[in-house]
Amino acid sequence: MDVTNSAEKHEWDHQVQVTAALLSESVESEFDGNTVQSAEVTFRPGERTKFHTHAGVQVLYVTEGEGIVATRDKEREVSQGDLIVFPSGEEHWHGNTEDATSSFSHVYFLAESGDGELTVLESP
């Protein structure tokens, strides 16, 4: 068993972010050659990611507010309690709307073999 706690949020620049730095709390663990990462990410109004893919499965659980998740083929509004699963290699983005009046937060879980690979594409 591996238990990790992240008690404080911090801002950090990430290559997948379109606008300002991410507000995030994160943990990471490794077992049997697989890496599992988790973080709570907060998008302020108008903030979102670029299109990107992961080498593994990414699961999002919406914890606060309303936001957007999208693939090349469809875009969905999501809200607190929604669970979103992006299969390995699926091009997607997620974030807040331009006209939002509050933040949008989700916890992500990313399970990948080895070091994993994030591929950052263009902005939506």
UniProtKB/TrEMBL annotation:
Q: What is this protein called?
A: Cupin domain protein
Name the source organism.
Natronorubrum sediminis
* Chain ranges of the Cupin type-2 domain: 40-104
**Which Pfam families does the record cross-reference, listed alphabetically?**
Cupin_2 (PF07883)
